[in-house]
Specification:
Strand order of the largest sheet of chain A: 2-3-4
Number of helices of chain B: 13
Mean pLDDT of chain B: 92
Radius of gyration of chain A: 13 Å
Number of strands of chain B: 9
Largest sheet of chain B: 8 strands, mixed
Radius of gyration of chain B: 20 Å
Low-confidence stretches of chain A: none
Low-confidence stretches of chain B: none
Distance between the termini of chain B: 51 Å
Distance between the termini of chain A: 24 Å
Order of helices and strands of chain A: HEEEEHHHE
Strand order of the largest sheet of chain B: 7-6-5-4-3-2-8-9
Oligomer: heterodimer
Strand content of chain A: 15-25%
Chain lengths: ~100, ~350
């Protein structure tokens, strides 16, 4: 998926992921890949938002509201973060027609 | 934002963090001691334990999730013998546990396999004790169990679920272990074999006569397919028991490990922080150098896989040398010396 497409595409947590937030960090286990992942506080904030489908653009807005970060930096970091989450299969694209949960 | 990925160091980091902050991280939950098989080597033979209601168990899972547990194993007995098994497993997934299920597979038909696949479990382990029905069924005591268990391996694996064939190696099935490896592989499953036969939890030593002899053990311990992680398991005489991993009986009693049944509270009546403290108090002597003096000073300690629970059952004390671990260590040392002298 190209970066331009990612920005306005809705994503949601992959349903096979197990996770737990411990002391501000979120630990994720993917049943499909067997991979384990650790998110810091900003990553955990994003992960919590992805309980419901959201676009990186929407998430970037929430991150700049919540954390002391300018929108340009947030945009780049969030695109990198989503690219990583897509590659590791811990998020999936939300298909139109699905229920928003 | 994703700081680490896929690496064993991450699991170690998580484990260390849980240890320092007083969180449990994994739980091994025996939902029932009932089973539809009668395996000759089963350590739960004759065990009887009151079971909890569905509602109680769902509540216990919520307690565990709230306490930070992420890895949950549902086991038994045979866990699928409970009519509410899928209610429990489904609730576990709603609570975002990484779910493992240990089963004999005999109750898994295609419908059950579909339901299991829908749960997105992390892994399903299915017990197989032979490469054919004659050996397996003679161990389980139930005609036709091999076919059902094998069908379950196939049904689970073909649905893309991580599937492991689990087996205890003993005199009765030793000659078939290589075929069992091939069988598991042909069905898309991995395999894990353990040569340790435990006494029954009531200390009945009857299963011990099924243990492999020394030459069989030597073959197993030198088979690279079976000993991929053997070096990691040789942790010395001290088992790293603490509150990070919990064993839970059908009545909710908490143990430091399923193999070390020293009660440390009850998930239905005690707060988790009290359970955590009780476990740490219970296991503290097991890492005390003075209490384990013989083992600490043993020349075989680098080849040791001592289990305190087994030492308690078989040798009378969880701080005593384990006769089984000593025997395995001697064979490991012999193998190692032979390799060096070649």
């Amino acid at each position: 998926m190209e970066l331009n497409n990612i920005w306005k595409t809705k994503f949601q947590r992959a349903p096979d992921c197990a996770f737990r937030e411990i002391e501000g960090e979120t630990f994720i286990v993917s049943s499909s890949t067997g991979g384990v992942h650790l998110l810091n506080s900003v990553g955990s904030f994003i992960w919590n938002r992805l309980e419901l489908p959201a676009t990186p653009e929407e998430i970037a807005g929430a991150v700049t509201d919540e954390f002391d970060v300018d929108s340009g930096t947030a945009q780049k970091d969030i695109l990198d973060f989503f690219t990583s989450m897509i590659e590791t299969s811990i998020v999936r694209q939300f298909e139109s027609g699905e229920s928003d949960g | 934002m994703a700081e680490k990925d896929h690496n064993p160091e991450l699991l170690q980091y998580l484990y260390e963090k849980a240890r320092q902050t007083g969180h449990p991280l994994s739980a091994h939950y025996e939902l029932t001691y009932r089973c539809n098989l009668a395996c000759k080597h089963c350590y739960l033979k004759g065990a009887d334990c009151p079971e909890k209601s569905t509602e109680d168990i769902l509540g216990a899972l919520e307690t565990l999730a709230g306490a930070g547990v992420i890895f949950l194993t549902l086991t038994g007995g045979e866990p699928l013998i409970r009519e509410d098994f899928f209610d429990i497993a489904s609730h576990a997934r709603k609570l975002n546990f990484a779910l493992r299920i240990f089963t004999n597979g005999t109750l898994i038909d295609n419908t059950a396999a579909d339901m299991l696949a829908g749960l997105n479990p992390f892994e399903i382990g299915i017990s197989i004790y032979g490469a054919g029905s004659q050996t397996h069924d003679s161990i389980t005591g139930v005609q036709g169990s091999f076919e059902k268990s094998l069908n379950a391996v196939s049904a689970i694996s073909s649905r893309g679920i991580r599937t492991t064939v689990k087996s205890v190696l003993m005199k009765q099935n030793f000659d078939e272990y290589e075929e069992m490896i091939e069988l598991a592989g042909s069905l898309g499953a991995s395999y894990t074999f353990d040569p340790t036969v435990f006494p029954c939890d009531n200390r009945d030593p009857a299963p011990l006569k099924m243990r492999l002899n020394d030459s069989q053990l030597e073959k197993v311990l030198t088979d690279r397919r079976l000993t991929k992680n053997a070096a990691a398991r040789c942790r010395g005489p001290v088992c790293d028991l603490n509150h990070v991993c919990l064993g839970i009986s059908p009545s909710g009693e908490i143990f430091p490990c399923i193999q070390l049944r020293r009660s440390c509270g009850n998930i239905f009546s005690d707060p988790v922080d009290a359970i955590v403290k009780s476990i740490d108090r219970t296991v503290a002597p097991l890492t005390d150098e003075k209490k384990l003096e013989l083992c600490y000073n043993c020349e075989l300690k680098d080849s040791c896989t001592r289990c305190p629970g087994l030492a308690l059952l078989e040798d009378g004390s969880e701080t005593a040398p384990s006769s089984w671990a000593c025997r395995i260590a001697r064979i490991r040392e012999k193998v190692r010396n032979n390799e060096f002298s070649r």
